[in-house]
Each structure stands twice: as structure tokens, then as C-alpha cells.
Design a protein that fits this description.
single chain, 516 residues, alpha/beta, Rossmann fold, seven-stranded mixed beta sheet, two-stranded antiparallel sheet, 11 strands
Length: 516
């Protein structure tokens, strides 16, 4: 009986061995043949003028690669990235996000040592464009090896801020604590706010309580303001379960008492906040803001409006030009104008949107710099640069809001693009955030860090008219720009709601649904 069983198992073994010899697994003989065919297809289709064809070529290559061909695959994907970036030139809309994203996702799957060495060398090469290095770094962010982590940490000291941003994003994705202390230092360094936002996001992903004290030290410095400061505080809230507002001294007092084992129940004065403004229930913590208001024809539709301004809102600190004492006459005129608007009935979506925006601007702190974009079939910007929230500018802005009339269609992307074209120009005290009329706004830094977009409908005209295409375009741009878009919808159906929610989620912004 035992001999029969032994013979049976021997037969199974020999049958299985014969099957493997006659039918090799993918990646041995069949894989080689498939790979050769894929390369031929890739070489043809990757040069196509059609975005879906180029995307499909990249995806086919990624699906077919296996360890022994990964170096060649990495070279081909990097070449496609380079080709795609060159395709745009200064017209960024010609660069297809789907192609870039597919290549990056493919690079993240690399496991072969030689392929990885190739990618690390390309990242180190200063002879090629920073944009290509940027996307290779994004690919490396999916490969968790000591070599990759150490390289990303080294790149935090690069002079090019875009490379620093990519490295921080990569470290956040890998959740590596290697550069945590360096990230805390960047929060209070003289670097662009985009780097600080990326650093705060990295530290948030780590969720490491050893960073509590370095984060508090960053808050005590002079170079952490606005949204970057607010997001740093959010990290502290996550790590501690406490909330001592935006003041570093309040957090420092709490931390000192906690380390000494003292009662911390009464530690720290949370105020004052950076700003007292609230817009559609969203607290305004940024100091670089673009308000975008839809003034298309549908904004004339009647509305059952409910005031979202918080009750017992503290009076704003009113400032004059250059931080000086405000002109009493202008202050009086501003208060009268605000009271006059508050007393007017709200009958339409436009009336409600105007009321909300006037209330928010009236309450902005003097440290805030802002502008307003109105859009329907075209776009109009109130000021072509971000201006201080002093009484003179508040008065001018409120008068401009009141002058708007609803008419025309909805060119949402054009308004967003105009906001993204704001960037820092000049040096030192002469530095100003203004519209970049030339150049490539996609790759700029130092512009507005927060957008509030109020609309009641889907986009139906403009440079990009399809909702999904707009969201994808913003995703691509925001890989560097990091602008948070808070969206408020005040009318429309489920498709409208989805578009506005998707846009907010794509930029880590807040979504407010006032359409119900």
C-alpha cells in the first residue's frame, strides 16, 4: 500500500515538472516574448499625439515588466516622462497628467537593484531639468529602501525649492522619520510657504510624539505664519490631543508644565487668533487668500438664505495703510457700509453670496493679504496683486462686490487659473504677490496659499469646460503649488455637488454644501 502511494506521488511530481518545462511561467520564456512585443508597441504608441494612446503605452509597459527587465523599463518610462514634459514647453496644458501619473506609478513598482541605481543617478544629475527630476522623485516615493530614504533626506538641502517639495512629499509617503528634525527646522526657515506646507504634511504623516518640542520651537520663531502656521498647529493637536491655538507661547507654557509634571489644566492663553474671519463656516487662517465668486446668470435664482456668520463675532482689528492707525473717517464709512449691507434683504443666491463675502472681508485681520476674482463667461480681478486687509482696501473691495451683477455662463477653470497665476515677484521689501502675465505659472511658488471658490453650478465654458478635466488639471498643478481650494456650493444638483467636493478633496480643502 505504501509503495502504491509513493509511486502515485512520484507520478504527480514528474507530471508537474514536465508541465513547467513545456509551459514556462510568465517572466521566463513567455514573459520575454510578451516583453519584446510590448516594447515594439511602446516605441510606436508613446510618440502618438493622442493622450489616451500614450497613457495606454505607458500602462502596457508597466503591466508587462518583471525584475530582469526593470532597468530597461525604468529607462523607457523616464524617457517618456522627459518627452511629455518637453511636449508642453511653456504651455503646460499640453502636458498630460494621465501620462505623467502612469509613468510615476510604474516607477514606484521598481524592485530591481540596477533599475533603482539608474533612477538614483538620474535624480542626482543636475544636467537635466528639475521637472524631470521632480517626477522621478515622485516615483522613488513608492520604493522604501535605505538608499531612497537617504537620498530624499539629502535633497532637503537642495537650492531648488521644487526638489525640496518633492523630497518632503516622498518622505511623507514612505513615512520615514529620517528627516523629521530637518523638517521642523524648515518650518521656521526663510523658505517658501509651499516647502513649509510639505514639511507639516510630512510630520503629520509620521505622527511621532518626539516632534512635539521641535514643533513648538518652530511656532516660537518669526518665520511661521498663516496657513503654514495653522497646519503646524494641526500636527501638534494630533500629537497631543490639546488645542492651544496659534500662539507659540501658549504651547510652550503648556509643554513646560507638562514636562515638570505640573497641572496643565489652566496652562496657556489660546488667543489671539491670526484672524477673526469666518467664511461660510470655514475659519480663515491663511494670510494669502484669493476669493473667487461665481456671478453667472443662475446666481439670480431665489434662495432661502441662512446667515452663517457666527454670533457674537469679535470686532475686527482695523488697520490703516502700512500698518498705521486707520483714518477715522474711512473707519466710520466702512462700518456704515457694512451695517447698510447687513440690513438689506437676501432674495437671490447672488445676494447671499455677496453678504457672506462682505462679512468675511470686513473681519479679515490686518496681517491678511487678499484679492477677489469674479467670473461668469469671463473673469475680472479686483486687484492684480494680493493687498493688505486695511480699511481702505476693505472699503474698496466691498464696493466692488456690491457693484457686481449676475449674468452669463460659468468659466470656472479660467477663474482658478487666474488665481494660480499669482506669484511672488521682486526681492526683500519690494517683494509682492502679483499676477504673472508671462512665464509658466504652473511652476511658480510663493503665490496665494488658499482659494475660496463659491459657485452654484457646473462649469460650461472657458479654457477647460469638463469638471473631471478641471480636477485633473488642478491635481497636476498642485503637485508644486500646494494651494488649498475651499469650495462652497450654493445651488445645483448632484453633479454640481460632486464637482465641488472633488475639487476640494483634490487640494485638501474644505467643502461646504449650502445647496440644500
Amino acid at each position: 500500500m505504501r509503495k502504491k502511494n509513493r509511486s502515485r506521488w512520484t507520478g504527480y511530481f514528474l507530471t508537474g515538472l514536465l508541465f513547467l518545462l513545456l509551459c514556462p511561467l510568465p517572466g521566463i520564456a513567455g514573459g520575454k516574448e510578451q516583453w519584446a512585443n510590448i516594447m515594439k508597441t511602446f516605441q510606436k504608441d508613446s510618440r502618438s499625439n493622442q493622450v489616451p494612446t500614450r497613457t495606454k503605452a505607458a500602462q502596457g509597459l508597466v503591466n508587462a515588466m518583471y525584475p530582469k527587465v526593470e532597468k530597461k523599463a525604468a529607462q523607457m518610462l523616464v524617457d517618456l516622462l522627459s518627452q511629455e514634459l518637453k511636449r508642453g514647453g511653456r504651455r503646460e496644458e499640453r502636458v498630460a497628467f494621465t501620462v505623467l501619473d502612469t509613468c510615476v506609478e510604474g516607477l514606484k513598482k521598481i524592485t530591481n537593484e540596477k533599475a533603482l541605481e539608474f533612477l538614483l543617478k538620474r535624480v542626482d544629475s543636475r544636467s537635466q531639468s528639475w521637472r524631470l527630476r521632480f517626477y522621478i522623485i515622485k516615483g522613488l516615493s513608492g520604493i522604501n529602501t535605505p538608499e531612497v530614504v537617504n537620498k530624499l533626506a539629502e535633497l532637503l538641502d537642495e537650492k531648488n525649492e521644487k526638489i525640496q517639495i518633492a523630497a518632503l512629499d516622498g518622505l511623507a509617503n514612505l513615512k520615514s522619520p529620517t528627516a523629521a528634525e530637518r523638517a521642523c527646522q524648515l518650518l521656521n526657515a526663510e523658505v517658501t510657504w509651499e516647502i513649509k506646507i510639505a514639511a507639516a504634511n510630512y510630520l503629520k504623516e509620521l505622527n511621532n510624539k518626539d516632534m512635539i518640542e521641535p514643533l513648538i520651537n518652530a511656532l516660537l520663531g518669526r518665520n511661521l505664519e498663516g496657513r503654514a502656521r495653522s497646519e503646524t498647529v494641526d500636527v501638534l493637536k494630533q500629537l497631543t490631543g490639546e488645542d492651544y491655538g496659534l500662539r507659540g507661547s501658549a504651547w510652550s507654557e503648556w509643554w513646560s508644565k507638562k514636562k515638570r509634571g505640573e497641572d496643565v489644566s489652566a496652562a496657556g492663553d489660546k488667543g489671539p487668533e491670526t484672524t477673526t474671519a469666518v467664511y461660510y463656516g470655514v475659519e480663515v487662517t491663511s494670510t494669502r487668500i484669493v476669493f473667487i465668486l461665481d456671478i453667472s446668470g443662475s446666481m439670480q435664482i431665489p434662495i432661502n438664505w441662512t446667515d452663517t456668520a457666527p454670533k457674537n463675532q469679535p470686532k475686527p482689528v482695523l488697520s490703516g495703510k502700512n500698518g498705521k492707525a486707520p483714518n477715522p473717517k474711512v473707519v466710520t464709512e466702512l462700518i456704515v457700509k457694512k451695517n447698510e449691507i447687513d440690513s438689506q434683504p437676501v432674495k437671490t443666491r447672488m445676494d447671499g453670496a455677496k453678504r457672506e463675502l462682505v462679512n468675511a472681508i470686513y473681519n479679515l485681520a490686518p496681517s491678511v493679504n487678499f484679492t477677489i476674482i469674479f467670473y461668469s463667461i469671463g473673469t475680472t480681478i479686483w486687484q492684480e496683486s494680493l493687498v493688505p486687509a486695511n480699511v481702505n482696501n476693505k472699503m474698496s473691495a466691498i464696493e466692488e462686490i456690491q457693484a457686481q451683477a449676475a449674468a452669463g455662463s460659468t468659466s470656472t477653470y479660467d477663474a482658478l487659473e487666474l488665481a494660480y497665476r499669482l506669484a511672488e515677484k521682486g526681492k526683500g521689501k519690494k517683494k509682492v504677490v502679483q499676477i504673472n502675465k508671462k512665464g509658466d505659472y504652473v511652476n511658480e511658488t510663493g503665490g496665494a496659499d488658499t482659494i475660496f471658490l463659491v459657485s452654484d453650478g457646473l462649469p460650461n465654458t472657458g479654457k477647460i469646460g469638463q469638471p473631471d478635466a478641471i480636477v485633473n488639471a488642478i491635481k497636476k498643478i498642485n503637485q508644486i503649488r500646494k494651494i488649498k481650494i475651499n469650495t462652497i456650493i450654493i445651488g445645483g444638483d448632484a453633479k454640481n455637488v460632486k464637482f465641488m467636493r472633488d475639487l476640494a478633496e483634490a487640494t485638501n480643502g474644505a467643502f461646504v454644501n449650502k445647496s440644500r
